[in-house]
Every structure is written in C-alpha cells, then in structure tokens.
From TrEMBL, chains A, B:
Span of domain HTH marR-type: 1-151
InterPro entries: HTH_MarR-typ (IPR000835), MarR/SlyA-like (IPR039422), WH-like_DNA-bd_sf (IPR036388), WH_DNA-bd_sf (IPR036390)
SMART domains per the UniProt record, alphabetical: HTH_MARR
Protein name according to UniProt: MarR family transcriptional regulator
Sections of the chain in a coiled coil: none
Organism (species): Myceligenerans crystallogenes
Signal sequence, renumbered to the chain: none
Domain of life: Bacteria
Length: 165, 165
DNA sequence: GGTGGGTAGTTGAGATCTCAACTACCTCGG
DNA sequence: CCGAGGTAGTTGAGATCTCAACTACCCACC
C-alpha cells in the first residue's frame, strides 16, 4: 500500500516486515502443527488443548464458560466442539453445582487415555517446530512479548463478547 | 499433563509457559483483529491480506498458486475465497500467460478502492493491538523470532502439500 | 508422437464455524 | 413476590473450510 492519504500513522518498513513475519510465521506454524496432528494423532490441536485444560482442572472438570474463555473460543463453537467430543466419548457434560444454568465438562477415562496417547507426538511437534528452533532466551522473549500482546487484545475485547457470544 | 512416561523430552515449566503464551497470545490477537475488521471494515483479515498482495504485485496480478503459497492457504480454500471475492467484484480471474493450466488473479478498480478504504482502519488496529503495544526492540525481536519459526515450519512441510492440496 | 508422471486449479460433499435467536436461570430492586 | 436485565449455554441455518476426486495441461523421455 502506498501511503498517500495522510493522518493515518502508517507502519514504517521495519514495522511492516516484523508484523508480516508475525502474520506469516503464526500461519505457517499452526498449519504445520495441525499437519503433525493429522499425520500421527487422533486429535486436532484444538481438541488436544481442550483435553489438556480438563486434565489440569480439579476433578478433571471445568465450566463451559471457563473453557471457552481459556481456549479463546466462542461459546457456540465450544458447544459444538464438546458435542462432537462427547459423541466420541472423550468428554462428558454434567450439570454444575450451584448455578443451574451452568454446565460442567468432564474428562472421561477414555479421554484421558486418548490425551496421554497423543501427548508425546504433540510435544515432539511443538519442540521440532518451536522450542528447539529458538535459543532459550529467544523463547523466553517470545513468551514475554506474547503476554503483552495477549493483554492488549484482552483489553480491547473486554466487555464485548467476541469470544463469548 | 503429568510427565510420568519417560523418553519423551517434555517441556520444562518455563518452556511450557512460553509456548502457551504464544498459543494464547496469537489466538487473542487474531481474534481481536478479526473483531476490529468486523466492526469497521467490509473485509475479513484474510480478504484484506489477499488484496494487499495483489496491490503490491506488478500489474496488480498474481498466479493463484503464488497467492496460495504467500497467504498460507490451501489451493482449494483460495479457489473458494477468490470465487466469493470475484462475485463481489473485488478481484477477477484471467488466464495466465504461457501456461494454460495457470490462472491469474487480478485486483479490480473496485477492489483497490475497497482496499484503500479499509487500510486506515486495518493499520490502526494493527498498531493498537501489536505495534504500539511493544517496545521497538521487542517488535524487532518478534520479527526475527517469527522468521525462524516460519523457516522451521516451512522446512517441515516442504514436499508435502499441506497448503497446496 | 505418445505415454507416464507431475503441476495448476476446480469441484462438491461433508465437516466445522459463525451469527443471531432462543431457553432457562440467576439477581436485584421495589 | 415479581419483573427487568443480565448470564450460561444451546440451537439451527447459512457461510466457510477440508478433503479427496477430477479436469486440463505441461514436460520429458522413449
């Protein structure tokens, strides 16, 4: 884009390069990670993340809304995903404690087994594509930087329910 | 995940944190960027990127395969996307020069106008969510790091056609 | 000069995602 | 109590994406 119209703070060449590197790098990374999952695992990356969250939760159980927020999924998308995973027996819904609107999602034994079977392949892929590609201090920088980015986006969408519609 | 099974090089706590920061940060960022596009622009982020590529190409024209590779899209997805954009008059297909299998995609005048109308809002969002959030040297680091990540993923998928099926 | 193997792009059906209702519940003020 | 307004989750229809054929073409070798 030529920067003819003024009063818009265009990006300079370096910013442009860096931003595009981010755009392209994440696209390629998530694409390659997805390909690795397709090739050797029975779970998409999204399903895997969902199971991981549950496996870390007390009682292997989490409220739908907590899952949605944590996984950066819309409520609707989570509903559909959980429905599919429930049909496969990986996960089950149970009504929540006090609030009768709430629904809990619980990891089943089968789900745990599937997760454990998938974990090595997943971790190998994350190493191959990310962790082992960077110097330790680069990985740490990436972590710090991405936290800042998370923060800014979170702030922008607070109040809104982009991922909670 | 507890790391009981051995012989898999699990991530240590720091690596885990950094990797998850990347995962969550990109998800939140692209979600927020998409929301910004929805709110003020007539183009999704993907459509915007496609128009940008064309606008930078000689003759505002690019081969489908080049577009697909550059945008990290499968051939099939690009076909569908271009079909929809062509129906909106943003872009047009024309048969390529020497190779009669090839198809060129060209930016139309309308497409250029729409792109120019969208650019300020897009750039503002990228600033707000990324560029202005980071110190200049952080943005530069991010760029370098993401280039390395791109490289690793590209290497992994070379030969394969994950994004060219 | 034709045949085998590759490349470019498309197609359509099924899977997934989005968006806007919609149900059911909670909460709080009056 | 009851009603208004908010929250949790679901639903279904339409949009989009994926995957596996499929068409058309190029190339190189015999």
């Amino acid at each position: 884009m030529a920067s003819t119209t003024s009063d818009v703070p265009w990006l300079d060449a370096g910013q442009q390069r860096d931003w595009r590197a981010f755009l392209e790098g994440s696209a390629r990374f998530f694409d390659a990670l997805g390909a690795a999952h397709d090739a050797e695992l029975d779970l998409t990356t999204g399903e895997y993340s969902l199971l991981v969250r549950l496996s870390e939760a007390p009682g292997h159980t989490l409220r739908m809304s907590v899952l949605a927020e944590g996984l950066v999924l819309s409520r609707s998308r989570l509903t559909h995903t959980v429905t599919r995973m429930e049909a496969r027996g990986l996960v089950e819904r149970c009504s929540a404690d006090g609030d009768r609107r709430g629904v809990n999602c619980r990891l089943t034994d089968v789900g745990l087994q599937v997760l454990e079977a998938a974990a090595p392949g997943h971790v190998r892929a994350v190493r191959r594509l990310l962790v082992d590609v960077l110097e330790p201090e680069e990985l740490a920088s990436l972590g710090r930087i991405m936290d800042k980015i998370s923060g800014a986006s979170l702030e922008e969408l607070e109040g809104t329910d982009r991922c909670a519609s």
